[in-house]
């Protein structure tokens, strides 16, 4: 029987500035980026599915087609009548990128409003993946629904992976963000934080402190990314330290963490051998940050 990777979150329309007043249309979003890379890395023995909500307008249809044409199953991409999807623009000013977002009415904010679909999707998965951004866009009730559904699926044997992806601008207060992220950590097996964010919002002095905090919350495996710095893992085998891949010219760090997570998870699902899986994550992230854009072929 096929095994299934289920990623849960928000995919957005991306308008990237390419020349004066011209924009290129794309689709991206942290959990979607990871699903996109997973589809490329996992063999035919795996299904990759995305769980989200979209609208019923033309751009929502175009997004769903893009997800499907990427080889990702869209059976859990739910169209909501009268809604649409979120959008962001990347503007270039003398080489500096700035982002503007329109996502407050995005259909994905309601992705957890159908508990029975959530249960069906999660219990059909071997590995479920979500992020702090998935949590941030939901209303408090939706957040509770999602975490309860994930917790129930985990009790039935589904492995759960979580990237805290701390984005304070999406939360009313940093404290709400911290509480929600630690609640998510308590229902996760594998946690993939980035130390720079964690140091800033949780006060972790070193990557090892980030790893310990998430291990104490209940995760059996924590892999702490740290930009160009050493990657630290913590599991039953103890602390591991892994060299990142040296990148001489970083072009665009968009999706560094998302692609690392895919490279790591795909490698780990294949052999459950930590060091080569972390190397695979770092290799993919190095390739992605050497080019423009979130989705690099
Ligand atoms: P981050 O989320 O910034 O910690 O980055 C995620 C992963 O991307 C890191 O663990 C590295 O594998 C890779 N990465 C990010 N920035 C760099 C960089 N400047 N040089 C090499 N690798 C990087």
The strand order across the widest sheet is 5-4-1-8-9-10-11-12-13
Proportion of β residues? 15-25%
Number of strands: 13
CATH superfamily: Ribokinase
Total count of domains: 1
Q: Catalogue the ligands.
A: adenosine monophosphate
- Helix and strand sequence: EEEHEHEEEHEHHEHEHHEEEHH
Percent helix, as a range, is: 25-40%
- Identify low-pLDDT runs: none
Most strands sheet: 9 strands, mixed
Quick one: CATH class?
Answer: Alpha Beta
Count of individual helical segments: 10
Radius of gyration: 18 Å
Structural class: alpha/beta
Average residue-wise pLDDT: 95
Separation of termini? 29 Å
Shape: globular
Give the tags:
297 residues; alpha/beta; UDP-N-acetylmuramoyl-L-alanine:D-glutamate ligase; 9-stranded mixed β-sheet; 13 strands; 25% strand
Task: Give a nutshell description of this structure.
This protein has 297 residues and is of the alpha/beta class. Helix content is 39%, strand content 25%.
Explain how this protein is built.
It is a single chain. The chain has 297 residues and is an alpha/beta fold. It has one domain: Ribokinase (UDP-N-acetylmuramoyl-L-alanine:D-glutamate ligase, 3-Layer(aba) Sandwich). The protein has ten helices and 13 strands. Strands 5-4-1-8-9-10-11-12-13 form a nine-stranded mixed sheet, with helices on both faces. Strand 9, helix 6 and strand 10 form a beta-alpha-beta unit. The radius of gyration is 18 Å and the shape is globular. The two termini are 29 Å apart. Adenosine monophosphate binds next to helix 9 and helix 10.
